[in-house]
Specification:
single chain, mainly beta, Cystine Knot Cytokines, subunit B, three-stranded mixed β-sheet, two-stranded antiparallel ribbon, 1 helix, 5 strands, 13% helix
């Protein structure tokens, strides 16, 4: 093997690992219910980052299943439940949310992920805010 080939191979392996930066990332969710007096700001972790993908030049020749691209998604997650303060007795004051334990680059699973481009959303409180650090 030529030294150029070996160096190219090593560079590709190193760059490929460094370029896929998919990991748990801190995120704040703002949760409020119309019936409750407060908005709850919950600090959690989500999967975020960049995954290496390849775009095929032969798109018309391949099946749609072969064209799926990798996204940063949950490898392992758990759910936690928070209590929204200031809710009347007739309202369920609980909110369950996912916490990313570990992440991976893989196909998007619509059972627990939004796999389309995210619309512009506001993530803020309209009521007085309480912070929840779990």
């Amino acid at each position: 093997m030529s030294p150029f080939f070996v160096m190219s191979l090593l560079f590709g392996l190193i760059f490929g690992q460094a370029a896929s930066l998919c990991a748990p990332s801190e995120y704040t969710i703002h949760v409020e219910k119309r019936e409750c007096a407060y908005c709850l700001a919950i600090n959690t972790t989500i999967c975020a980052g960049f995954c290496m993908t390849r775009d095929s030049n032969g798109k018309k020749l391949l099946l749609k299943s072969a064209l799926s691209q990798n996204v940063c998604t949950y490898k392992e997650m758990l759910y936690r439940t928070a209590l929204i303060p200031g809710c009347p007795h007739h309202t369920v004051p609980y909110y369950s949310y996912p916490v990313a334990v570990s992440c991976k680059c893989g196909k998007c699973n619509t059972d627990y992920s939004d796999c389309v481009r995210e619309r512009v959303r506001t993530n803020y409180c309209t009521k007085p805010q309480k912070l929840c650090n779990l």
